[in-house]
Write a structure and sequence with these properties.
Blueprint lengths: L1 E4 L6 H11 L5 E4 L10 H12 L3 H6 L2 E4 L4 H15 L4 E8 L6 E9 H9 L3
Parallel strand pairs: 1-2, 1-3
Antiparallel strand pairs: 4-5
Helix pairs in contact: 2-4
Length: 126
Amino acid sequence: MRIVNFSHPLTERNLEEIKTLAGSEVIEVINAQRQLNLDKPLEQQIEGWLEELGIAPEEWQTQPTLFNLPALNYGASVLLAMLHGRMGYFPPVLRLRPDTAGMVPRFVVTEILNLQAIRERARGKR
């Protein structure tokens, strides 16, 4: 499985947490952290991010990929819309939370959200 990370850096411990939750080896991590310029349209910026990844159209549709979304909700919304357009479905995403037990701030992987499954369940409520 490939992870495309648009947010906080993932640690080795995070990767082990993901492996356990997903039941799959992490083959590749693409670090794509970027800053959004809130004075400019988001669509063009995020389109540029996706183009920079160099992922072929076939790969978007066939390669198992997990996403760590940007923390800014507007950016995450635009990114999800674009990913759905490229992939044909909503991708799975990570949910991280702060670990307040330690002295050094860090994040732990809490769950993997299967957005397509969530969408399908919601669709049944129409």
